[in-house]
Each structure stands twice: as C-alpha cells, then as structure tokens.
C-alpha cells in the first residue's frame, strides 16, 4: 500500500499555490497595488512608437503663446483652431499639416492672412506669400530650444499634467532669455 499525499502540481499541502513552482519569469500579477483611474498620459502610438505631440503657437519673436499636448497619433489640424483662438494677428504661418479648407476659413474670418502651403494631393493649389512663410523657422527654432531640456526631449514624466507643468516652466525660461 502506497500513501500519496500529493496535491495538484504547484500547490502545497494546504491547497494554496506555491509561486516558486509556477515556472514564471516574475511574480504573479494579482493586483496588489493601487490602480490609478482616469490619469491622462497624452501618450499615443505612431510610427515611431509611443510619442507625445506638442502643438505650439509662437509670436513674431519666437516666444510661446499657447501650448497643447496630444498623443502622437493625433493629426496637427485637429488642434489648429484651438491654437489661434482669440489671438489677434495679421497672418497665421503654418506648415502643410495645417492645410484644410475649414482651418483657412477660420483664419480668414478673424481678418488674418493664411500663409499655409498646399498639400501635394490637393486638386487646386492655393497661393501663399513665400517671403512671409520664411518666418516659420521661428517655430522650428522654438522646438529646438525645447529639445535642449532633456526632461522634455525624453519624456521622463508619465502623466500629462506633470509633463505640461515642466513644459510651461521651460517656456518661462525661454521667455527670460
């Protein structure tokens, strides 16, 4: 007569699981930590991986006026009207990502000139002032100044409100220079 006191594999005599016998690479995820609900991260998946887009509006000197954070998959044109809302200007200079009939109509309603080149797939290209379009490098230089802050360039902060807070701190530093 053979007495066997074995239970199911990976379980002790009391019937509870023995974690070291479960042959896992790490401890089981049983939900022991507190989960955060509703924390906006503004991280989106694009071709380059997980990214965050900073949509910016700058003045004629390259100083930031308005900043909006979105996930990396969000198109530029979706934030265009929010960027220029209630800003008085003679011209709005933007790249091809902001080319749409609706956005140009919003710009002309405010009495400003839309200096946006047409996309290559547009049926009828729109004329724009090439000399005024050269001022768009102010936006590019602003983003290059932001990239000097390593915390922004590598996205150390997980939550969008913390990332946005440091972004505004960096913009205040740029305003002071």
TrEMBL record:
InterPro entries: Transposase_11
Domain Transposase IS4-like as annotated: residue spans: 33-175
One MF term in the entry's GO annotations: transposase activity
Example GO BP: DNA transposition
Membrane-spanning parts: none
Pfam families listed in its UniProt record: DDE_Tnp_1
Descriptive protein name: Transposase, IS4 family
Species name: Nitrosospira multiformis (strain ATCC 25196 / NCIMB 11849 / C 71)
Organism classification: Bacteria, Pseudomonadati, Pseudomonadota, Betaproteobacteria, Nitrosomonadales
């Amino acid at each position: 007569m053979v007495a066997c006191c074995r239970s199911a594999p990976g379980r002790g005599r009391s019937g509870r699981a023995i974690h070291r016998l479960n042959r896992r690479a790490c401890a089981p995820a049983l939900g022991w930590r507190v989960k955060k609900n509703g924390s906006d991260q503004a991280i989106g998946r694009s071709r380059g991986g997980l990214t965050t887009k900073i949509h910016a509006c700058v003045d004629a000197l390259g100083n930031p006026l308005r900043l909006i954070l979105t996930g990396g998959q969000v198109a530029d044109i979706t934030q265009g009207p929010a960027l220029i809302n209630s800003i008085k200007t003679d011209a709005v200079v933007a790249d091809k990502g902001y080319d749409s009939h609706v956005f140009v109509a919003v710009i002309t309603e405010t009495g400003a000139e839309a200096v946006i080149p047409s996309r290559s797939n547009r049926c009828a290209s729109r004329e724009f002032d090439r000399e005024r379009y050269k001022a768009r490098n102010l936006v590019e230089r602003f983003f290059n100044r932001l990239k000097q802050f390593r915390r922004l360039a590598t996205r150390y902060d997980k939550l969008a409100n913390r990332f946005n807070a440091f972004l505004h701190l960096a913009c205040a530093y740029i305003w002071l220079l």
